[in-house]
Amino acid sequence: MTALPPCPLCASEYTYADGAQLICPECAHEWTPGDTGATDEAKVIRDAVGNTLQDGDTVSVIKDLKVKGSSLVVKVGTKVKNIRLVDGDHDIDCKIEGIGAMKLKSEFVKKV
Question: Which residue ranges does the record assign to the Protein YjdM C-terminal domain (predicted)?
């Protein structure tokens, strides 16, 4: 039996193979052999026109957005300050004045 490499994140020696991927049971990190793990950290989030977004940026909304579960609408041109980038389908966490905390998709904003 061949020895598997330790986890690149937490250095755990209890890694196991699942198909072509290696998995660490202690930190739940998944990677393929020979992968450096830089792909998770190198994810770049871009706005509707292709500008790279970062935490703390100010963006404006490019389309009227209905707020789910409410009759409120985020109007075109609404400025959103101090955004925070997160993983997931809605990749921007923010607070919009008059509405409150929201999650937005980067495809509906542009950097100011």
Answer: 45-112
* Amino acid sitting at position 30: E
CATH among 2.20.25.10, 2.40.30.40, 2.60.40.420, 3.30.1490.100 for 1-38: 2.20.25.10
Distance CA 26, CA 2 (A): 20
> Is domain 58-111 classified as CATH 1.10.760.10?
no
- Taking the model in full, what pTM does it have? 0.62
State how far the Cα of 83 lies from the Cα of 86, in Å rounded to an integer: 10
